[in-house]
Amino acid sequence: MSDKPITRERLLRVLENQAQKTAKAIAGLDEATLNQPAREDGWTGKEILAHMASGYEGMRALALGQVPAGYEQSGFDLDPHNERNRQRAHDLPLAEVLTWLEAARQAIRTTIEQTDETEYGLLVHTPWMGDHPKGQFLMFPALHEGGHRQELEQWRANVEPAAQ
């Protein structure tokens, strides 16, 4: 995180920038290509996109003080949770995954637009990341997307020369 103050405008700008960068990272890739492993652990490009969507949903729910679907109140383990979501997304058509991702982004946009900036200092608790100010926490979904988008960019750089 930077030292720049977190404002609604900044949150929305970072969110939009990440969405544009992800669109560029997968532009022109077909479903067959995005169903190929993109990481050493076997996650496909499409599964990574679904993971981004799931991350938006979970972090949005937590920012709203809700327990996201599939989160246990105690003993939460992020790896099995992510694997369950990966399996859920595995057979979804790419178009459905992309619709899910855009809907999840839109939901966080709406949350950002409806959250009074005076609430940005309130603490949000997560079962795996501890407590963070709400403004910072509203930035995390876009940063999460950015990290996984970089994985897709690196994978694409390796997969494209092989296709030529």
Task: Describe this structure in a few short sentences.
The protein has helices at 8-26, 31-34, 45-63, 78-90, 94-114, 134-163; strands spanning 123-126, 130-133. With 164 residues, the chain is mainly alpha-helical. The protein has one domain (8-158): Four Helix Bundle (Hemerythrin (Met), subunit A), CATH 1.20.120.
Give structural notes.
This protein is mainly α. It has a single domain (8-158), classed as Four Helix Bundle (Hemerythrin (Met), subunit A). The protein is built from 6 helices and 2 strands; from the N terminus they run αααααββα. It is globular, with a radius of gyration of 16 Å. The N and C termini lie far apart (38 Å).
Count up the domains: 1
User: Architecture, according to CATH?
Assistant: Up-down Bundle
**Coarse morphology:** globular
Q: Strand sequence of the main sheet, in spatial order?
A: 1-2
Strand residue content: under 5%
Q: What's the Cα radius of gyration?
A: 16 Å
Number of helices: 6
User: CATH-wise, what's the superfamily?
Assistant: dinb family like domain
Instruction: Give me the secondary-structure category.
Output: mainly alpha
Using the coordinates above, name the CATH class. Answer: Mainly Alpha
**Terminal-residue CA separation:** 38 Å
Proportion of residues in helical segments: 55-70%
SSE series: HHHHHEEH
Extract low-pLDDT stretches.
none
The main β sheet shows up as: 2 strands, antiparallel
**For the residues shown, what is the average pLDDT?**
89
DSSP, total strands: 2
Topology:
Layout: H1 8-26, H2 31-34, H3 45-63, H4 78-90, H5 94-114, E1 123-126, E2 130-133, H6 134-163
Antiparallel strand pairs: 1-2
